[in-house]
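In the design runs reported in the main text, the only information available to the sequence generator was the tokenized backbone. The following block is the verbatim input for one such run; it is reproduced so that readers can re-run the procedure and compare outputs position by position.
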């Protein structure tokens, strides 16, 4: 069981299954939304995620036609991304997860738009855009 929460503790969730995907995204949208060099995401099955509290505190921001960022309306923590074409999946902002989580093999994506002041120093695979392109 994976559990997590926003910084102010209004929004709390649990995931019944495992992470199915694990990546660090360097795209400019993730960088701005997270105020960080990159955002770390874990793919979970949509029907395995449930809210323990605060679902009504989640705000949606559509950063593209197909994708919404969901964040706490009180503290602003990014909780997940809803890519509408992927009806079965949601992407958890891994920084909101409590404690340890078992991750599948990870990778970097959108390295082509990486922050110039950040250097990737691990050995994970790097993709300029989406991993399958
Ligand atoms: Zn919050
Ligand atoms: Zn991104």
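Verbatim output:
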């Amino acid at each position: 069981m994976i559990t997590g929460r926003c910084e102010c503790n209004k929004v709390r969730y649990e995931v019944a299954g495992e992470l199915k995907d694990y990546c660090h995204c360097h795209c400019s949208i993730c960088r701005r939304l997270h105020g960080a060099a990159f955002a770390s995401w874990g793919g979970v099955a949509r029907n395995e995620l449930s809210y323990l509290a605060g679902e009504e505190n989640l705000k949606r921001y559509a950063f593209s036609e197909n994708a919404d960022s969901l964040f706490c309306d009180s503290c602003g923590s990014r909780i997940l991304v809803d890519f509408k074409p992927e009806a079965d999946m949601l992407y958890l902002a891994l920084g909101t997860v409590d404690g340890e989580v078992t991750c599948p093999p990870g990778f970097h994506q959108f390295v082509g738009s990486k922050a110039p002041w950040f250097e990737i120093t691990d050995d994970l695979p790097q993709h300029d855009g989406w991993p399958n392109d």
